[in-house]
């Protein structure tokens, strides 16, 4: 790997820190990692935990018009502030930025739990989303400064598995808390877990670890340029408006409605302004153009965003398929999704061992994309008569691919980029995943709704499509006559299979991203790596 000119111009302080760097002992690393896993679990859980709690929230606040904001406010703010946290992690010790992110997340969770009205709940979700923006990228960065490259894949694989488990288990945990405690318990749950995270990270992670740039001696104008506040002031609202357009388009408003057209026009104008600022700022910008041109960076981002999009489509719509086509309850559908969850956990461990050797990142990522592609392709053949062997086997294929992908892209980034670039590289990677998730779910919802309406109008024109859509997946028996239920069942199957084709397309593109990885690994040279990393590289190659 060629040494970047910018990396060669790293500050003397940064070079000295790298040269004297020593990884903490195993016991300290495990304690810090436990805190990271807990924080990642809570942050990811908040994406899906409200799915089963929203009816109880609506009963209390009588705010059906706000229901979409309960989830979107968290996702939108979390995505919008990803790159800003990348700048913070580049400039300040990772420990304190991460602790600040967790505390913001905890504050938002407390406000949500104590909410007395719908606007207060939405505000709390938005604040929690800002904190969540720094949690996942911070966790990945902390792993890079506490775990040698030879073992990093295993730790990152565990982090990825935790996220997937939290995504799948979210609705079940939310339902249990709502039934036996209160919907407020979905938010108060974060408080004790967050406190444990703060204690573990605060006590066992070294305070000065992770800063790659010195701010001492800079004027206020230089600080303004360093953090690219002008670019951030444009990027955050641009991301918010884009995600709003994606969430509303085709659902609340038609895609050609004045509202959606106006939102997309605003996004286009802000994007032009943002690009102009980034070209002027160069490496000081929110997004480094040099970094985006790096093959390891853009290929990993492409791979990660496509696998993430495919994964969330499969998780959301496979559970819906079980409930609507197989007539399973919410708890039964969770049990029926266990093959995917178990295979993800096992494959993440296998992938962690494989990616302990950086030269295996590209083959592992390619295999992951192929597994998900084959599994998603087979899921498109599901029907009401599909047996256990089919939907279990197809889940295992998809889960194996998702598990193998849990750490391969992240290890590839850390193995091929200078240490000073890691905070921003990780932020770009997590931002691409968040944006892809919002985009894939928006596309999936539009494909599902349009196909379901088309199927119902074709096969059961006497039924009210609006009544069926409002009934949802679990209350169809109350609005559909018994003689027409098989027809509706088949219509749901066709609509969900149509969404699986979107997951298949994402998975196929992920294979192309994996094939663009840097396949030949070369040992890092100073100042891109510490002596310890050089030693690790020598042992691996």
The topology string of helices and strands comes to: HHHHHHHHHHHHHHHHHHHHHHHH
The 3D shape can be described as globular
Separation of the first and last Cα atoms: 14 Å
Unreliable stretches? 1-20, 524-541
Individual helix count: 24
CATH architecture of the largest domain: Up-down Bundle
Whole-number count of domains: 3
Tell me what portion of residues adopts beta-strand conformation: under 5%
Provide the gyration radius in Å: 23 Å
Q: What portion of residues is helical?
A: over 70%
Polypeptide structure, described:
Keywords: Membrane, Transmembrane, Transmembrane helix. The structure is a single chain. This protein is mainly alpha-helical. The chain folds into 3 domains: about 25-210, Up-down Bundle (Growth Hormone, Chain: A); about 230-285; about 290-435 and about 505-520, Growth Hormone, Chain: A. The chain is built from 24 helices and no strands. The protein has helices at about 5-10, 10-20, 25-50, 55-60, 65-80, 80-90, 95-115, 120-145, 150-180, 185-190, 190-205, 220-225, 230-250, 260-280, 290, 295-325, 330-335, 340-355, 360-380, 390-415, 420-460, 465-470, 485-515, 530-540. Helix 13 packs antiparallel against helix 14 (about 260-280). The longest helix is centred in the last third of the chain and has 38 residues, at about 420-460. It is globular. It starts with a helix and ends with a helix.
């Amino acid at each position: 790997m060629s040494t970047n000119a910018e990396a060669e111009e790293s500050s003397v302080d940064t070079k000295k820190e790298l040269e004297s760097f020593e990884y903490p002992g195993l016991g300290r690393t495990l304690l810090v990692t436990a805190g990271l896993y807990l924080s990642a679990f809570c942050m990811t859980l908040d994406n899906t935990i409200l799915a089963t709690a929203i009816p109880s929230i609506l009963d209390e606040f009588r705010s059906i018009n706000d229901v979409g904001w309960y989830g979107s406010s968290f996702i939108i703010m979390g995505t919008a502030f990803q790159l800003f946290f990348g700048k913070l992690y580049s400039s300040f010790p990772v420990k304190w930025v991460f602790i600040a992110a967790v505390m913001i997340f905890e504050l938002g969770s407390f406000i949500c739990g104590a909410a007395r009205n719908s606007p207060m709940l939405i505000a709390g979700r938005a604040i929690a989303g800002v904190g969540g923006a720094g949690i996942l990228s911070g966790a990945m960065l902390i792993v890079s400064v506490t775990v040698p490259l030879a073992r990093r894949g295993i730790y990152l694989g565990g982090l990825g598995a935790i996220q997937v488990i939290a995504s799948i288990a979210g609705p079940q945990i939310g339902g249990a808390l709502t039934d036996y405690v209160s919907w407020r318990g979905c938010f108060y749950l974060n408080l004790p877990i967050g406190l444990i995270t703060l204690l573990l990270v605060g006590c066992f992670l070294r305070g000065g670890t992770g800063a790659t740039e010195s701010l001492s001696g800079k004027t206020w104008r230089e600080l303004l340029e360093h953090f690219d506040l002008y670019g951030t002031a444009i990027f955050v609202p641009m991301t918010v408006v884009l995600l709003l357009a994606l969430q509303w388009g085709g659902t609340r408003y038609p895609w050609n409605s004045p509202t959606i057209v106006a939102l997309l026009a605003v996004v286009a104008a802000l994007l032009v302004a943002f690009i102009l600022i980034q070209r002027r700022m160069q490496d000081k910008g929110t997004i480094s153009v040099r970094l985006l041109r790096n093959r390891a960076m853009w290929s990993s981002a492409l791979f990660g965003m496509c696998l993430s999009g495919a994964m969330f489509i499969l998780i959301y719509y496979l559970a819906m398929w079980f409930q609507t086509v197989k007539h399973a309850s919410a708890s039964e559908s969770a049990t029926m999704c266990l093959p995917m969850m178990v295979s993800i956990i096992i494959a993440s461990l296998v992938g962690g061992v494989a990616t302990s050797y950086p030269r295996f990142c590209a083959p592992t990522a390619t295999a992951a994309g192929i597994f998900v592609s084959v599994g998603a392709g087979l899921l498109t053949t599901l029907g009401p008569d599909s047996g256990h062997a089919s939907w279990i086997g197809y889940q295992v294929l998809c889960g194996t691919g998702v598990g193998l992908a849990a750490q391969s892209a992240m290890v590839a980034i850390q193995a091929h980029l200078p240490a000073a670039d890691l905070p921003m590289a990780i932020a770009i990677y997590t931002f691409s995943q968040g944006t892809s998730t919002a985009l894939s779910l928006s596309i999936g919802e539009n494909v599902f709704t349009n196909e379901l309406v088309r199927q119902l109008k074709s096969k059961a024109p006497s039924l009210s499509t609006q009544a069926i859509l409002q009934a949802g997946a679990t209350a169809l028996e109350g609005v559909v006559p018994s003689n027409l239920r098989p027809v509706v069942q088949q219509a749901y199957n066709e609509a969900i299979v149509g969404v699986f084709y979107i997951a298949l397309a994402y998975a196929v593109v992920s294979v192309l991203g994996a094939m663009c990885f840097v396949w030949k690994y070369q040992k890092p040279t100073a100042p891109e790596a510490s002596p310890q990393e050089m030693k690790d590289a020598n042992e691996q190659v």
